[in-house]
Amino acid sequence: MQFQSLPGFREFYPDACALRNHIFGQWKQVARAFNFQEYDAPVLEPLELYIEKSGEEIVGQLFSFEDRGGRAVALRPEMTPSLARLIGAKANSLKRPIKWFNIGEHYRYEKPQKGRLRAFYQFNVDIFGEAGPAADAELIALLVQALRAFGLDSKDFKVRLSDRDLWLLILTAEGLDEDGSSTVLGIIDKLERTAREQTVEKLAQVLGDGAAAFLDRIEEVIAIRDFDALSAYISNLSLEGDGAEQAKQRLDDWKALLSGLKSSGAGDFIHIDLGIVRGLAYYTGFVFEAFEASGEGRALAGGGRYDALVKKLGGPEMSAVGFAMGDVTLVDLLDSKKRLPSYVQSPDFIAIIGGTEARDAALGDAALLRSMGYCVDYPLKNQGFGKQFKEANQKGARFALIYGTDELAKGVVKIRDFSTGAEQEFPREALATLAQELLASGFPGTEL
Ligand code: HAM
């Protein structure tokens, strides 16, 4: 019987691994460019970490079980709760703002479909200890750069920007209390994927008869696309006491965020869109998701502020903002935009070996070049020259190092440059000093 991998779990053959490495490499480079430091956390966590903290939707998708010690555990569906725990435990000794990133695999028992698997990688990037919108701007700018690094531009993707704080003000003005607001935000989160009548039915459980008219007003808010319109709408809300002052303050935060993003070159990618509220339970302020420019398909990345989570997990008061980008939707997008790089993993040198004595010489030279970091290969079996050259060509080697009886007798190695077909002999001792020049500019004294 041929065994199969589990649904939603991928196997990475070398080409797929090369693509994955390329993606991780770009992510890492962007995180480093923004001076974020890498951290890691366990793959298996106490189940309780996700109950309530992550919210109903994710808890329903957990790979959870009882371990041999009777503990209820779960494979991590996301990084944020683990990260918040790490930060909380060392909060006092960590220099703020704390700027950390991770690339790791996550597990959710979802129905495998386009853009959704059961095991996927996420690039998590978070800032702790900075409450102002400069941190949100920095992260969204990093998100934009992480996609631009793959050659994508504003014709390819957009970041939909929203704000749970503004929603709470809007819903307070609508007369809703905290519980009501949180239920309604859950309904708004599902709006795009739910039939209108069903949404009205759900809203009616909180709002009674006024649900349909309420939905009309909500849709008006969701249709807002520019800051002036948003500002006008919020300024006209009937808010009492603190509410009016909070609204004014929040609009100032928006201004600061948008201006920071514009200065960082991310302005063209930002689309104000209050239709985004995020399904996870812990978000508190600005929230955002990146999508393919047409808005089609699943999100490329999502995140936002979560100022209360560190404390909820037993740490001190600590503001936080972050996002995660997934590899599955990113690869789909790169594929559809013809931006998938083609990988040539080929050796710098391949030894062509003529007999047992020559093998000793070839292995010695290969060991030396490998210890210097060059990629060197040679046939594991004795073969005729013709076959060896054919295989060296197929492997895309840059140079052949030819060890025949004549060369051995003279203490030389004959080098063939596969890009020109030219051959030259060099003393074997010169190989180590010659290798770099060969790879950079071909045979000494010749123009490549
Ligand atoms: P999330 O929106 O659940 O947020 O996931 C972020 C990204 O991970 C999604 O936009 C998507 O690209 C990818 N993703 C999620 N589930 C799957 C799946 N089943 N298959 C393939 N890709 C998937 C979070 O996880 C938050 N913890 C992000 C965050 C970090 N918030 C603050 N810091």
Question: What distinguishing features does this structure have?
Answer:
448 residues; alpha+beta; eight-stranded mixed beta sheet; 16 helices; elongated; binds histidyl-adenosine monophosphate
* Biggest sheet statistics: 8 strands, mixed
Query: What is the strand content?
Result: 15-25%
Shape: elongated
Spatial strand order of the main sheet: 1-5-6-11-10-9-7-8
Q: What is the SS-derived class? A: alpha+beta
Radius of gyration: 29 Å
Give the helix level as a range of percent: 40-55%
What are the bound molecules? histidyl-adenosine monophosphate
Q: Give the averaged pLDDT, no decimals.
A: 95
Distance between the termini: 54 Å
The count of DSSP E runs of length 2 or more, i.e. the number of strands, is 16
The residue ranges in which pLDDT falls below 50 over 5 or more consecutive positions are none
- Number of helical segments? 16
Walkthrough of the structure:
Helix 13 links the parallel strand 12 (349-353) and strand 13 (376-377). The protein has an 8-stranded mixed beta sheet. Helices cover 41% and strands 19% of the residues. It contains 16 helices and 16 strands. The chain is α+β, with helices and mostly antiparallel strands and 448 residues long.
Secondary-structure blueprint:
Elements: H1 14-33, E1 37-38, E2 44-46, H2 56-59, E3 64-66, E4 72-75, H3 80-90, E5 98-107, E6 119-128, H4 133-148, E7 157-163, H5 164-173, H6 178-189, H7 196-207, H8 211-222, H9 227-235, H10 242-263, E8 270-272, E9 286-292, E10 301-305, H11 309-312, E11 320-326, H12 327-336, E12 349-353, H13 356-371, E13 376-377, H14 385-394, E14 399-403, H15 405-410, E15 412-417, E16 423-427, H16 431-441
Parallel strand pairs: 1-5, 7-8, 12-13, 12-14
Antiparallel strand pairs: 2-4, 3-4, 5-6, 6-11, 7-9, 9-10, 10-11, 14-15, 15-16
Helix pairs in contact: 4-10, 5-6, 5-10, 6-7, 7-8, 9-10
The structure holds histidyl-adenosine monophosphate.
